[in-house]
Amino acid sequence: MTASNRRTPAATRASVLQQLLPGYPAREHWRLVPATGQHYLDVGSGEPLLFLHGNPTWSYAWRKLLPTLAPHARCLAPDLPGLGLSQPVEPPSDPRARYLHQLDHLDALYHHLVRNEGVPPSGWTFAVHDWGGPLGVAWLLRNPGVVSRLVVLNTIAFPWPDGYRLPFYLRWIRDHRPVAATVHATNAFARATVRLGVTHRLSSAERRAYLLPHARRGNRRTITEFVRAIPRNPADEAWRLLTPPDGDDCLGRLPMLIGWGMRDPVFTPLILAEWTRRHPHAVVHRYPRAGHLVMDDAGDELGAHIRDFLRGQR
Description:
CATH topology of the domain at 30-165 and 239-310: Rossmann fold
CATH superfamily of the domain at 30-165 and 239-310: Alpha/Beta hydrolase fold, catalytic domain
Strand content: 5-15%
Mean pLDDT: 91
CATH architecture of the domain at 30-165 and 239-310: 3-Layer(aba) Sandwich
Number of helices: 13
Number of strands: 8
Helix content: 25-40%
Distance between the termini: 56 Å
């Protein structure tokens, strides 16, 4: 019997899956958190650098940064529960706790990495994008002393600034159940993101790779839920993710790099201006020709800037 014939069905599926993910790290870098089934990448060595993606992306979004950063940091890139290669999750029935389960999964990932994978309990860098911003900042505020540096990429972690208006298509999905149901059925939000979220056209293979984990209708629930959860005022349950505790200046003490795609229709220059107003100590890099998926549009330049930031260079 040949080696290929001895493969288990699971191993065969994983091998086929890897072939469909151009640029994604090899299977030996894939990991699961035993307690939750959350999938994550573990690439490189050095101090921990945790990437937190948004919606509707997954750890595939970081593929262009990893070759530059893995020689300088232990790059850990989870798929948020219900997205990418992580197992789907049933959200809590209590709506007040619905998004706390995302933070609970981050807790489980952290404890798994520290207890079982030799990752130090402190000295971490977080790189956050889109929904990864409010989730990552909420987690680091709940766990002071773990995160030593923060990389901010087209996201928000405070109430929307005065004058900001959410794009109409997000309002439609968020506020109208029939629209949300149609988007869920057609995977329209993810399909639009891989085309309109970049200014430099992705290859057809890259677009397919982004969409692959959510090709089946049953795997798209979290995508729609995240859009419908976008907080717009204090009455929304996820608003607390955008409101740090009063008097907490933890972020003001953290070294911070802000890398911003200036052609993002959602996280606009108005939001970047609010980041810089709140955190004038931050190192800021603007990418004039990059869109929402700044890690795709400006991958080489962004990777070099993060590498220099990790080295203590501006």
